[in-house]
Amino acid sequence: MGVLHALRGEGEEAREQFGAALAHDAGHYRAGTNLGNLDLEEGRPAEAEARYREVIRMQPDYDGAHHNLGVALRRQGRLGESVASIRRAQRLSLKGSQRESREEARAGLGRLGTGRLGTGAAGAGWLRWGLLGGGALLLFGLLRGFGG
């Protein structure tokens, strides 16, 4: 609800929703980030910085908080710190993407053996024979074309 209010330009309502989320769950780092975003949009980069630092304390590997902290620091004229924070965000984002890719690959390989992709043990055999047959037909066609 807070995000919806923020998108509508209803800052106070958004702030109330994000505050309620934090009151319910003090570790709700996304609500904390969104409060920082509201501070930043309202021209209060120092307050946004404090919120982003709190989020990073709760969730040190959250790339979004590091990136937004970099923006808040840049708006305060602290360019060196800003660049360092944004670079950290980029490294964390890349690390997260690589981890997700590995997990997806493992899950895909696991499904291959169970037949959930339609290519279980029997399906994999048919696929193999189909590829071999297709290769043989291609080779036959190429050889026949050269001999004709």
From TrEMBL:
TPR repeat placement: 29-62
Residues that span the membrane, as ranges: 126-146
Matches recorded under Pfam families: TPR_16
InterPro entries: TMTC_O-mannosyl-trnsfr, TPR-like_helical_dom_sf, TPR_rpt
Sorted UniProt keywords: Membrane, TPR repeat, Transmembrane, Transmembrane helix
Transmembrane helix in keyword set: yes
Gene3D superfamilies: Tetratricopeptide repeat domain (1.25.40.10)
Name of this protein: Tetratricopeptide repeat protein
Organism in which the protein naturally occurs: Deinococcus terrestris
Lineage, broadest ranks: Bacteria, Thermotogati, Deinococcota, Deinococci, Deinococcales
